[in-house]
Amino acid sequence: MKKITIINSLDGNDGQTFKDNLNQILATNIDRASFESFDLRDMKLNYCCGCWDCWFKTPGKCSQKDEMPQLIRSIIHSDLTIFISPIKMGFVSTDLKKITDKLIPLVHPYIEIVNGECHHVKRYDKYPKLGLILVDKEWNRESYRIITNIYQRLAINLRTELAFSILSDGRMEGIKDAINHF
Fold it and tell me: The whole model's pTM is what?
């Protein structure tokens, strides 16, 4: 059975409607999969302070006491992790940026050459594929392109792939197909 982790940083009524629609798609259209969903706005999550304890003092674990360990556990044990965010000021929400920064314990501090580039050494044998759903009613394609590129680079660093990236105006077109084909 496949496991999908959903990390949602949408807020307000639009966020709840989108989440409800996504849950319905997942429940009725995705066979042989289990889902774990996190609403970042409801979680206690600190910003990365750059102390590097997650690499040296407490390898693989952030020294801050927040709810990040449950996210890390779910992500590393999933087959697909979907990040959902509005586009705010040309980038993902602050909540999703916090999470992205705090994924650093998923790799070692050591560097190796991969496809002619320097990347961190893997900490785990398997990493999930990544999916990205960006919600923007104004269809800001330039911001979408920049954000997608950054998450493609994150996928490379985690030795996985960005399985899909979708720009949505809040409707669900294309999302079901992207998840079904990961």
Answer: 0.92
